[in-house]
Amino acid sequence: MRKACVAAARVGICGRLPYNRRMARDRQLILNRYRPIGEAKAGGFGTVRVAWDTRIQRKVAIKCIELDEVDAARAALPGANAVAQRAPQHEPLPWEDDPVFNDADEAEGDATSVFDLVGDGPLVHSLAHVPGLDEARTAAMLSDASIVAVYDFEVQESTAYLIMEYVEGVTLTELLHRHADRLTLDVVAAVFASVSHALEVAHANQVLHLDIKPDNVLINHQGQVKVTDFGLATLADASGYGAAGGGTIGYMPLEQMRQENLDVRCDEWALASLTYEMLAGENPFLAPDLERAEAVIEDAELVLPSLCWDELDPAVDDVIFFALDPDREERYATVADFAEELEPFLGDPRRGVRELSVIVGHADDEEEEENRDRATCSVCAAPRAHHAAAAHGGGACGGRAGQRGGRVRGVRESAADQRI
After folding, report:
1. Beta bridge partners of 53
2. Residue 404, Cα to own-chain centre: how many angstroms?
3. Quick one: DSSP state of residue 402?
4. E-assigned strands of 26-115?
5. What percentage of residues in the chain have a pLDDT greater than 90?
């Protein structure tokens, strides 16, 4: 009987061993559903982890945002997780802006899914301001192939979780730093077309992104370009203006630095700055602080983009500089107008997508090679790749000879990610 019971335990009839394993495995899940499969990386206002959705069987990216006591209390309020309501057709009365008043009837139980509460009316912000929730609400409004999708938003204890589409590939920052020599006008056209289209979709929904920069442009293995991180996004009011909430030096215009009311021309300037960087190979608007950033924009001496490309028509310079004008009243009225003027000077975006798919695939191969190079020998702690050149003598490592000649990749350092 004892042997039979042991055998039964092994196949799970007694249930104790498999149950314990299942409990240990479930403790590793995020929100009892998502299994982490990648290291955490820094993202806007939190860390981002790659995880496996055990329910739908797909990879997702999860932005994890630690809440302070005040935000955690807000998240627990009735209606704090609501996402949708009818946009008022008049100036809201004081109590109409109160999320608890508006959403108390809708928020029953502990449901925190954004999509459980999305109705037919246009989405608008409540005043709950739980970190990550505004981003979820904003991105939930925007369904487009050029925008990274947001699937859900949940709060558990003192952490908010934003569940997003996982894009396997590289950022535009990585592309520009590591593969600048492979950039063509077709590639520039592909990136510009997707980012400008994403902004047009956002602006059509009265959403201002306010943080367009290479770090927030993702490129997948198919060469598709997607805009992400609506963490600073805001909704424009009936007059087309929204409030400033931050930004990144080098990619925000004067009006955003000065915290004036913003409109679509703010995103247009950021797109023009990003495009100039692709064409000229540098961002001339970088500065260590806001004061000097303003001075750089007002007194910038820019290289003509057409001088950087043999095949680029000099007429493109006026288009770029028009969109980069410090005075927004002198810029194009919309991103669509800017795109209409610029795209004829660039290459073929469809060819650019194909080229990007090759570049991104090549980038993955290089990353694997660098990971192998970084792996160290357990004996001498030198990179294993160096042992191929410095042979082990008599079973001993090559010592100092094995440590010389390390492969160093040149990367342009900048203050592009000085986010405020």
Report:
1. 34, 58
2. 37
3. G
4. 34-36, 41-43, 46-53, 58-66
5. 48
Q: What is the pLDDT of residues 242-261, one digit of tens each?
A: 666 678 999 999 999 998 99
**What is the C-alpha separation between 327 and 255, in angstroms, rounded?**
9
* Residue 252 contacts residue 260 (beta carbons within 8 Å): no
CA quadruple 370, 186, 313, 275: dihedral positive or negative? negative
Three-state secondary structure call for residue 59? strand
> Tokens 């490592």 correspond to what residue?
397
CA distance 247 to 269: 12
Q: Dihedral of the CA atoms 384, 385, 387, 388 (nearest 10)?
A: 140
Active site residue 211: yes
Compute the radius of gyration of the chain from its Cα atoms: 25
Between the CA of residue 117 and those of 81, 137, 277, what are the distances in Å? 8, 10, 41
Among 134, 211, 215, 267, the one annotated catalytic:
211
Write out the two tokens for 372.
Answer: 């192998």
DSSP structure string for 212-272: -SGGGEEEETT--EEE---TT-EE--TTS-B-----BTTSS-HHHHTT--B-HHHHHHHHH
Q: CA dihedral in degrees (222, 225, 226, 232; nearest 10)?
A: 150
Is the distance from CB of 211 to CB of 247 less than 8 angstroms? yes
Length of the chain (residues): 420
Contact 46, 64 (CB under 8 A): yes
Q: Please answer whether residues 38 and 64 qualify as being in contact, where contact means their C-beta atoms are separated by less than 8 angstroms.
A: no
Q: What is the pLDDT of residues 262-294, one digit of tens each?
A: 999 999 999 999 999 999 999 999 999 999 999
